[in-house]
Amino acid sequence: MAKELDFEQIKSAAEGYGKDMTAFLRAMISHPSESCEEGEVVACIKAEMEKLGFDKVEVDGLGNVIGWMGEGDK
Fold first, then answer.
1. Are 42 and 50 in contact (CB under 8 A)?
2. pTM for this model (two decimals)
3. How do residues 12-53 score in pLDDT, each as one tens digit?
4. Are 18 and 32 in contact (CB under 8 A)?
5. What separation in angstroms does the CA of 52 have from each of 6, 40, 41, 55?
6. DSSP assignment of 7-70, as one string?
7. pLDDT in tens, 54-67
């Protein structure tokens, strides 16, 4: 049976990331990202994921940023 999560604990932890998330959002929207011209935003997201310590980060052939952490089931 799944462990029940404490919403207040999760909310409190999430609020601690508010400033970082705002800075990341501002960085993303500072780059033009019209269709087929998302390269700068993709690079911004990839760099942030690498900074956060993702085990592996790559961009697929369609421009999607994919990151992996750990070795658990997909």
1. no
2. 0.78
3. 999 999 999 999 999 999 999 999 899 999 999 999 999 999
4. no
5. 24, 18, 17, 9
6. HHHHHHHHHTTHHHHHHHHHHHHTS---TT--HHHHHHHHHHHHHTT-SEEEE-TTS-EEEE-S
7. 999 999 999 999 99
